[in-house]
Amino acid sequence: MPRAATLLRLAALALLVAFLVTPQSFAPLFAPLTQYGAPPIYDQGNLLTLALAQLGTVCIAAAASTVVAVGLGIIVTRESGAQFLPLSRTLVNIGQTFPPVAVLAVAVPLVGFGEKPTLIALFAYGLLPIFENTLVGLRTCPAAVLEAASGMGMSAPQRLLSVELPLAMPLILEGMRLSLVINVGTATIGSTVAAKGLGEVIIAGLLSSNTAFILQGGILTGLMAVLLYDALAAIERRLLRSVSMD
Amino acid sequence: MISVENLSKIYGTTTVVDGVSLAIKRNSITAIVGTSGSGKSTLLRMINRLVEPSSGRVLIDGQDTRAEPAYLLRRRIGYVIQGHGLFPHRTVAENIATVPRLLKWEAPRIAARVRELLEVFQLEPARYADALPHQLSGGEQQRVGVARALAAEPGVLLMDEPFGALDPIIRDKAQEDLLAIQRRFGTTVVVVTHDMEEAFRLADHVAVMSAGKLLQYDRPAVLLRRPADAFVSRLTGLADRAIRLLSLVTAGEAALPGTTDGPTVAASVSLREALSELLWCGAQSARVVDADGAVRGQLTVEAILARGRP
Amino acid sequence: MSAAVFAGARPLWAGVRRVDPLGAVLVATGSAALLLLPFVVFKANRIVPGNARALSEVLPAWQTLGCDAALLLAAVAALWIPAARLRLALALVAVGAVALAAGAAGDALTPPGDAVVRIAPGGAFWVLMVCLGLLATDATTRLRPGPGLRVLFLIATLAAAGLAISYGLFDHLSVMREYAVNAARFAREVRQHLKLAFGSLGAALVVGLPLGVLCHRVPALRPGILGTLNVIQTIPAIALFGILMAPLGALAAALPLADRLGIRGIGAAPAVVALFLYSLLPIVANTVAGLKRVSRAAVEAAHGMGMTDWQVLTSVELWLALPVILTGIRVVLVQNIGMVTVAALIGGGGLGAFVFQGIGQTAIDLVLLGAIPIVTLAFSAALTLDALVESLDRVRAEGR
Fold it and tell me: Is A221 exposed, middle or buried (0-12, 13-18, 19+ CB in 10 A)?
């Protein structure tokens, strides 16, 4: 069973890479979907460049939201920030009811079209899962372990860096995975506000009724999202194995 | 030498520890006993400043504990808690090396110390050094917890209900190990427990606390013979105090000159066990022998019973 | 000052010496915004960039002072008053004052009979609203209202906003201008939005509940079904919409009946199917989790009393699993309300139509006309279902 899953993953990765590097070799597959001699493969930009641009946007936004969300999570779990905790939990709950598209749409008026609104929307929406998981991770550190750490003479930063954060790491990673996957999807929609990405292909297809474009854009983003999700889950499992609790 | 001077802790309007003073001798084991909520844990935690005192002070070897930042103080004091508190993401060796690393010992010295401690605690280094805490049994985890607390050769070891989570047989062994290790390293041990049996077995001195106040601080035998008040006598076990007195003295200490052809008891067992053996055999006297088999003297039932009187 | 201040043991002045840190952050942010950002923006038409106007330039002195006084009171509450009720009350009063001021500014700046100029709330307005909202949220969190009270609070807030809108208090603000132009279409798109969100939820329930029960009864099926649904969840909505268009289009071409029923490559059909697929995972996973939580003893007792398999399932197992299943429904509903927005891209309609149309025309007000109701809908759905789950749990706890 795990063997089959690995093979499936490798096949998906191979398909993704092959499509991005030599898209024209897939032209015969998509040709039946086009009408009136429309191009079967997206020709207004390089698919590889678009995919990398989208991945770049997603990763930059995820890095920024990780830094901020983990930082906030640390602040509100310290004694001095404890009174911000109930509010921040409520905000996380409220924040999750905001659809990512709405965040994107509201960001446009603030910063104009292009990569910026997408980055902002991805950043803002990516905060929530990471923040929530950081909170859970830091708050569920066993009390005895924390007490032992202080009792042995770790200063507060030492305790945070060498005990609390490592113990919370699997959950923080899970939050990052959730937000990355949501972000790949939102970044696709970002193409409606002129961000570079594979969404461009889908939207071009929608505008020119070219099913081939829609399909290849959809398949490529889907593959990218699934592989990203899978790769992060694998890293998480590996970490979890070394941090497994009794 | 730890001297606790007029120490109090007040949370809001509740006084948890109320003006406690006691002097703990170097190289001794002191037990702090009391019911839950008596303030015994808070008292212990004020020694390493996990709880900051509201008033009063603590001196260790004449130096005020507030003279340095709390976390530096704690690196010189071993600390063991119930449920061990091992770091689940670190191996046994890394757990033990925690404080030496904080103190920036050199790597070879840390490695040697970890090895020594693993051996002292009968944890085969090849098998245990790289194991993760969750792979150990409860008793092994507890031993690693104590080894970790002793890693940086602290002069003082504080223990908060250290054996509370262990089953009776493992607890018995853990107590025996603690006595052996205390003799070996000469550490000053302060242990909080609600188990009187444990306190009497381990401690040279026992401090009895109730409602934040120190009721009595003395040798176990004095506690039994001359309890300060009704609470102390109830806590130390009014009904079987005579038997408890017997458990404080070993057969070797009580042996009289001469010999007898009755049953044999080891010099290390308590009079309580010696009496039990005599009752079991229906004999009036027993021979006391050393670990190497040499006769140390004899014990009679009357002599034992005399030790159980106030 | 109200009795709430004095209800506590400590007198009011005891709290004055200590400044509330959250309050300090909020007051600092709000004041900075008020000083640096425009309160309203005046635009000659809906596309051109506007110029900033401060409140005092626009409104008569007494109105400006009234708004400032409300803000000042809220600031005092935020900084020094620990009583949550009073904080909440003053924050809400300030929210009302700021909203009314914006509405009044719209009235004042619009020349009579002019339908071209746009007066939009500026940066200061939004920052103040966020700060006051945070203050109110913090106070509400500290009060820990029960589920019934929370729903009541939601209804009251929505009613107040609805009343203010229907009285025309905001008629000259840009978003309401867009609404006035699109009123008939707005109602249609809201209905379409709800139809898509609830329709796919209904379909997911019809399929997901039996699937969940099946997963519970036949553990061997569990990893396969849940794994597949998990993978579907990771496919971005727009991609799934696109992928579904091809087979549905082919179906419509092959079956004229399907076409007549509205099953086509473009439009609502791929959206509904995609949302349905997304909805399955939370429903199935929560059904399985809920059933797993049901104690074996209860099930055995039910069998022991002579209930049939079906009776045990419907009247014991599913009933006991209901709170967990409801939590799944909450996740799906909130998720659907958000995702339906994207359906507009493939001609599915819904409020997303305004959002994407607005993005296309760089008309921010049109974006907001779509986005504000979407957020309101999602938030109301989340709050209502949370309250439902909680009250259900409470009823259970009392029944025991």
Answer: buried
